[in-house]
Amino acid sequence: MAEFKIVVSDPKIGKSITxxxxxxxxxxxxxxxxxxxxxxxxxxxxxxxxxxGGSDKVGFPLxxxxxxxxxxxxxxxxxxxxxxxxxGMQKRKIVRGSMISDETYQxxxxxxxxxxxxxxxxxxxxxxxxxxEESKTEESPTKETQSKExxxxx
Length: 154
Hints:
It is built from four helices and seven strands; from the N terminus they run E-E-H-E-E-E-E-E-H-H-H. The protein is globular and about 65 Å long. The chain is about 15% helix and about 35% strand. It has one domain.
């Protein structure tokens, strides 16, 4: 069965969330291409998502101008999957096609319609438990820090 990690970005607020989908909802994404719009209910959001890219299990990026879903060794001068160190540099790189397949691991999307609901921040009870270790270190300053501090003249 297909299993994907979907990254949903909201350009309006500049935040993103990651969701994992499996089984039937993941099957609906098989065969989709970069640039297509899909319903956002598969990641429990009301709205529409646009597929902008992704990568496979090994880390090869999906590239919109390469057809199919297989790996291709193409000559790149710019764009996805290539960072040029010198202007005009060309390099042969392995990239995947624009179609989502079973080999795809991560799918990058942007929210076209709808609002992104971020996870709720931790409650006050959670915050009180976490910094317990930090307060212990602050209460007992070391001798080195005490000697470095200059005495104030009054």
